[in-house]
Amino acid sequence: MALGWFVAVGLAVIVRVEGQADNVESTNLDCLKSVVPTPSPSATPTLRPTLTPLPSPSLTSRQLPSDKVKIDCSNKDHTDAEIVCKDDGSCGQFWDFSDTVLNDVELTNCCIELSSFVGSSAEGARFGRTNNEELQIQFRDCDMRDMDWGGIALYANFTGNVQNANLDDVPAARLANVTLSGADMTGSHIQRMIQFEDCNFTGIRAEHGMLIHGNITENIEGDNAPPRMPMNRVSFREANMRKAEFKWINGEENKFRGADLEEAIFEFVTLDSTEMSMANFEKASFGDSRLTFASMAEASFVGAQIRNLVIQDSDAVDSDFTDATSFNCPDSVSKGCPHILADRVDFQGSKFDGSSMFKSEFISSNLEQTSWVGANCRRCVFSRADVSGADFSEARLFGSDFSEAKNVDLAKFEDAEIGNTTGIYEDGMCEDFCDSRGCSCVRPTFAPTTDDPDTPECVVNCNNVECFPESAEVVLADGSPRRMADLQVGDVIHTGRELSPVYFFSHRLRHGSFTFLEFGLSDGSHLTMSPGHYLYRADGSLASASSVQLGDVLAGAAEPLTVQERAIVRERGLYAPHTYNGDLVVNGVQVSSYTTTVAPRLAHTLLAPLRFASRMGLEIPALLDATAPRWITGAVPLGGSVQK
Asked: What are 277-294's pLDDT values in tens digits?
């Protein structure tokens, strides 16, 4: 019995020694034909070979299975080699092709795992393509540093730890100091590298959706999101990468100059010091991404789809965003999706004609000689931007903010539609502004909606700071109107029941644009306020602004007013004045001083010390002013209302 067992073992070893690599169907390469187990250093014979240490410490995150052997093909010239692997999904374990010459090699249908190609070179090789058949090669957890594979045909998937895609594992795949310039990489993918840097992909061709992903699982956001793949100092200059996908990547000093990336996808990508000049991003999509210190001069974003693209401290001179638009917010985004958030960006001479820049911001940016003909700039912010020579002809500027913008007088507004726009004319002077510029003053017309303002469309709910915009008006004791921005403590105003002085502002912010609900009323007036602020219905009951729907009847100062329009708008400033009796009249509607944040009677009780202090002649600073003492900010509620 024992003798038979030893004979069987011996035959197995002989077959093992004389056989080919496990996953190889046929080859003319001797090193893959004769597989020799690595001898064990132990004095006791063993049937399971002990592994030779792998060449890079980075590869030790996944261990070579104990029933596999090292196949050493290193330091040789393998020109004209042919390797055809089995079509059974099996992977070769640790092929060492380091420092080899792989010119004119044909590698077909292979899955190569935990292997090394460090320092190898290849010219004219074909990896994954034979007789015009596209058979993808897989490189799993391989070390591919210092390679020079120029001018090859490559149809491959470079993947880190794809079989054991556990987010707790550290993938060991590396692409570093690699030259693949001029390669045909159509259909190739690069995923979950722990090192992807100093690579030269200049002039490659990958026309049908090359994937460069940092995450091979479903897109996960927040604390459970996997780490992003590093991509540093990789050159894609003059590359043809139409429909390529870049996702879950952090990168520095990459180059896309002159590359064709039409219909490419960039999502959850952060790129610093990136060269993108003269690149073609037509019809590409950018979602939840950030570009800092980027060079984007003369790049084309014509027809691009953009969502939450942050651009900072970058050069985008003469770039083209004609007909750019947005795509939908994911459900997980709770604060809305601006298109572009630009800060200190030079857009001089750029085009935004026909684009939809909804909620975009161009703060402290250079917009000299830019063209916005026919653009939809609803709720755009141009604060501190230089708009000298900018052409906003036929643009829609509903709710836009030009506060502190420079050289507005040198911009063109011919046939533009101005509405709820701040910073380009004095209040009430829109007609005078447009008479000399050929624009028209209109109020934005909104389709009736019952959307909840707490949905992603509502950008700001003031973090429970419920308030009115600076343009809202109250009525003084003498009957004259006064804007919230000009209202002062001590002013006596109408409250609907009686006159009462303003003794305190819980919120008084003069700068910034915020989101409010706007109601169009039956007498042609409009009331704008935060969703959680209380107002009065015609029957005397209190209701939060967010609960008011089309057809509801409100308590007007002179007569009941029916709600005919309901919309979400963006206006400047946050103001919440308080009167002794807790009420006031705003834009002809009786409203409360308080909000839904605190139970109404409790809120009124908590404010009693402040009313007493006011009557004693003590000054009470606004809660959101920097001068507010800690005892006030800690004790006074930011909401509530007095029940009737």
From this structure: 999 999 999 988 999 999
Three-class SS of residue 3? Answer: helix
Average pLDDT over residues 418-438: 78
Mapped onto helix, strand or coil, the DSSP state of residue 225 is coil
| Alpha carbon 177 to chain centroid, angstroms | 29
Torsion over CA of 83, 84, 89 and 91, rounded to 10 degrees?
A: -10
Query: Could you tell me the two tokens for 602?
Result: 């409790």
User: CA–CA separation, 534 vs 640, rounded Å?
Assistant: 8
Tell me what the mean pLDDT of segment 96-122 comes to: 88
Residues 557 and 481 sit within 8 Å (Cβ to Cβ)? no
Rounded CA-CA distance 97/124 in Å is: 17
What pLDDT is stored for residue 172 in this prediction?
A: 61
Residue-wise pLDDT tens digits, 251-275: 999 999 999 999 999 999 999 999 9
Burial of 260 (0-12, 13-18, 19+ CB in 10 A): buried
Residue pair 587/472 in contact (Cβ under 8 Å)? The answer is yes
**Nearest C-alpha neighbor of 245 from the set 327, 195, 188:** 188
DSSP states of 82-127 as a string?
Answer: EEEE-SSS--EE-EE-TT-B-TT-EEES-EEES-B-TT-B-SS-EE
Name which of 204-208, 239-243, 546-550 the model is least confident about. 204-208
Mean per-residue pLDDT of the chain: 77
